[in-house]
Amino acid sequence: MEDYKQYFIMTEGQKLNLTKPSEVDAFLDMLLQYFNTHKSNNFLRSVGIASNAHVLQLLKTQNYERACDLASASFTYISARDEYQTPGIAKFVLILGMTIAGRHLHPKPHEAARKRMLSVSGFITQDVLHVLSELNIDLEQISLHHLNNLIGLLGDQRDFKTLSWFLGILWNSREAQRNWRPSVTLALGRRFIMARYLVGESLAAVRLAEDIVYNCRRVYGSRHANTLEMSIFLTQLYTGIAQRYQSQKAGQDIAVRYYKKSAAIHENVLRVFSDPSYAEMEAGLGTSAEAESRSFFFDGGYESPKLGEKSDAEHVREHLQYLKLALERLGSWPKDYVEYQRLNTDVFRVFGAELRGIEGMDKWNLGSFGSGNAESSEDLLDLEVTDWELGEAAQVGN
Question: Which domain of life is it from (predicted)?
Fold first, then answer.
């Protein structure tokens, strides 16, 4: 075996830059085991099949280093061949990249092993996704189960550039996903927005979030949980962008503008819940654009709120707190204080019992804050997303 390994290193290995002894050993051992019991009419395809099977077997036996060596060597070997640029072989490589990540292994690998597994998976998946794209393969035709796994994997790898690119492909083809529930499409939109924000495309992220909130209001109504959750997400984006400008010498005016945008959304939500005439006006706005907005975003149909959704009072309490934080960051009332007195009166008239113990606006001391400061950071985006999958239970941004 040692002579065989040295011969491979001096011939194929040198040409392919596959000379690391542990990788060569794992690769050749896999080939010998597989072809000892199998015949092949397509050698490279057999390498792909054998690699995936052996990597999975090594992971299940917790031989993580050996699995990483084999995955890395197999990718180096396959990607050097012209056949790599074909859908069939590229598919095996994509599976290899997803398998070596070991996302669903039990027990979980130790931290050092997990880091290396994600690293190996990262350079494999990033490369093969672009190969598939260049081959004009419809990535959006992958089943939702595998899409979830791939999206989650790219998130685990923190490869936000590739993740943003991939989510963009899915978002732009969402109308073709007739079997997706609207909640899945909404989750996709949130994740695409978050990925764009993380790669520095803040304004594009905000524009998309504004479009989605607009459409949620017209399809679901202003008081629906989806609309309210997306509205909070949008205000967190506004606040995050404002914080970036706040730290810049010439960015104060822009920061103020975004804090005002955030405050306006929470103010409007409170008016919808506390002022029947305002709520009726909001509902009327949706009728003329409903057909257009439904086709833009929600081809899957209307979804009713689920059991366990927050009550109206809980939504009001939440948006009252977010309004307070937005105004604290401003450090002053952006409109005539009489408007806020009236809003405060309406909110506590309707929800007084449920808001017992909550400070009204007359008790808010905005002047103690300002310059982007607030008593809490709960109105900021959580940038440490742990679950990027499109599962209905996952939330991104709050």
Answer: Eukaryota
Alpha helices by DSSP H, listed for the chain, are 2-8, 14-16, 21-35, 43-60, 64-79, 87-101, 111-134, 144-156, 160-172, 182-198, 202-220, 225-246, 252-274, 276-285, 290-297, 312-330, 337-351
Phi, psi of 164 (to 5 degrees): -60, -45
pTM, two decimals, is 0.86
User: Residues with Cβ < 8 Å from 108, sequence gap 6 or more?
Assistant: 114
The helix/strand/coil state of 352 is coil
pLDDT digits (tens, 9 = 90+) for 207-254: 999 999 999 999 999 999 999 999 999 999 999 999 999 989 889 999
pLDDT over 60 (residue 301) = no
Which tokens belong to 5? 């390994």
- 277 in Cβ contact with 342 (< 8 Å): no
Q: How many CB atoms lie within 10 A of CB 45?
A: 16
Count other C-beta atoms under 10 Å from residue 7's C-beta: 12
Please name the residue that has the structure tokens 């130790």: 110
Who contacts 297 (Cβ-Cβ below 8 Å, separation ≥6)?
174, 182, 185, 189, 211, 212, 215, 216, 219
Neighbours of 136 (CB within 10 A): 7
pLDDT digits (tens, 9 = 90+) for 1-21: 678 788 888 888 899 999 999
- Rounded Cα gap, residues 208 and 210, in angstroms: 5
